[in-house]
Design a protein that fits this description.
By secondary structure, the protein is of the alpha/beta class. Helix content is 34%, strand content 27%.
Length: 314
């Protein structure tokens, strides 16, 4: 399970640590956050203690109206053994009880000058990105006409070389050789490059080249949603390849299906142009324009006409 420490959250959100320094090592394992208003009222039946707790103006106002005993009892329960941390927003005066109990329970108590809603939104987006399920794929990822295309194939078949040609044609490189992929909550796959090989291409016979240096900042992209996959393989004369494109195939990565096309490689083919056209064709299909289906409809109409008027074609 992915996790991120409270110390990283403090650094990212520029929070001020008020108490509970011994809890900086505690880990956050979910992007969900909570506001413990009901808990301050004494209802702990559905308390999600594994979440970061946000105390805004409303919660703080209500807390300050409680008796001394109620404050201590309820805040101790909020500072559970698995509570990763507590963030107080709007920069109010923090009650002494909160500081003492946070130190006692080793739960980091943090403060921010931002509004509750804004900070919750910012932190939730950050946690979703950091805690998203991840994997790696061997291949090349490019942005071709706005479509994130993952090119896969066995080593040495020419993936990097075709990527170089596509970059020369104005498309953008995201990653070469290894593509790090994370799955977002809305079932999208976002690909990026490992920092070590970012913006680099390995061309056999030439070596490693820096695409950003050679072609400019507009030739690279930090990350891209993977929308289409191309599998390159050597031509097999015994294999039957799809010639019309009516049938649609998918490949699953982390249980997310990605539309996939297979391109057989033969000497003399301009593979970059073929992949470019495949990306454009995929984009057209996404917009409801399907040339293969249109051809099939025309063919069916022609066959039906021949059946009904057999003498017309003679």
């Amino acid at each position: 399970m992915s996790a991120i420490q409270i110390s990283q959250i403090i650094k990212y959100a520029q929070l001020k640590l008020i108490a509970g320094a011994e809890g900086l090592h505690r880990e956050v394992t979910t992007s969900d956050v909570s506001r413990p208003g009901l808990q301050f009222a004494g209802h702990f039946e559905h308390y999600h203690e594994e979440r970061i707790q946000f105390i805004g103006r409303q919660e703080m106002t209500f807390f300050n109206q409680l008796t001394q005993q109620e404050r201590e009892e309820r805040f101790k329960k909020i500072c559970a053994s698995s509570t990763p941390g507590i963030i107080v927003t709007h920069d109010p005066v923090i009650p002494r009880e909160m500081i003492d109990i946070a130190n006692e329970q080793h739960v980091s108590l943090m403060q921010s000058t931002q509004s509750t809603t804004r900070l919750m939104s910012t932190l939730t987006n950050y946690l979703e990105a950091e805690l998203a399920p991840t994997t790696s794929e061997h291949g090349v990822l490019l942005d071709i006409y706005g479509v994130g295309v993952l090119i896969r194939g066995k080593s040495g078949i020419g993936k990097s070389e075709v990527a170089l040609e596509l970059v020369k044609r104005g498309h953008r490189l995201v990653a070469d050789d290894r593509v790090d992929i994370r799955r977002t909550d809305n079932e999208r796959l976002i690909g990026s490059s490992p920092t070590l090989i970012q913006h680099l291409l390995e061309i056999r016979g030439v070596g490693i080249v820096n695409v950003k240096t050679l072609f400019g900042a507009g030739s690279v992209l930090e990350e891209k949603r993977i929308a289409f996959m191309v599998h390159i393989e050597e031509w097999d004369g015994q294999k039957e390849y799809d010639r019309l494109g009516i049938d649609e195939y998918t490949t699953e990565i982390m249980d997310v299906p990605i539309p996939t096309g297979t391109i057989p490689v033969r000497p003399g083919q301009n593979l970059a142009v073929i992949i470019e056209v495949a990306a454009m064709n995929f984009r057209q299909k996404s917009l409801g324009i399907n040339a293969a289906a249109e051809f099939a409809d025309r063919l069916s109409t022609m066959i039906e006409q021949e059946k009904n008027n057999p003498m017309e074609g003679r």
